[in-house]
Specification:
The chain is 26% helix and 31% strand. The chain is α+β, with helices and mostly antiparallel strands. This is Tc1-like transposase DDE domain-containing protein.
Length: 105
Amino acid sequence: MEVVLNHYTCPENSEIPLICMDEASKELHGYLYKPMPMQPGMDAKEDYHYTREGVRTLFISLDPHRGWRRVSCRDSRTSSDWAIELKHLLDVDYHVDYPHAPKIR
């Protein structure tokens, strides 16, 4: 873990950019009862009951030094999905956003 944390404390290097990746699973909710829209002098009203509309996984890649980020959404959260996202980062985003960098951290 210390090796990973050391990467975050290294100064910015335009030759070898730092790319961080993470993922999160999020539930999708729907309305059980139709919400009441906002009207003059009244706030919108929503009931706390909801229907579950499935789960999606968000994958984010970011460069904290440049402020660059890419977010993608997938239907599942498996090791294959992680590998596909990593492959896309290395094959597409890396060559588009960092064409002169020989490698990434």
